[in-house]
Description:
Layout: E1 8-13, H1 16-21, E2 25-29, E3 32-33, H2 34-44, H3 48-51, E4 57-60, E5 63-65, E6 76-77, E7 82-86
Parallel strand pairs: 1-7
Antiparallel strand pairs: 1-2, 3-6, 4-5, 4-7
Amino acid sequence: MSDAPVHQFTILYFASAATYTQKPSEKLSAPMTFAGLYQHLEEDYPGIGEKVLTSCLFTINLDYVDVHEDKMKTTVIKEGDEVAIIPPVSSG
């Protein structure tokens, strides 16, 4: 878990997510569902959903999270959690 202030969680942006937001991380208010996170990110960074998030994996406290549509409203990010947005990685 991170050292996020009370009633907040930390979100980490990697690769294209960091490029799109122009920051490596930020603190957001907790608790928040993944649906709320998507909405918040789309409001702050218009177009991020379609251009970045649709192809990303997500973790909460280093555990991968299944955030398909049916779980978007039930998966809750809690105070002190660390969420990572991990875009696809290519090798070659």
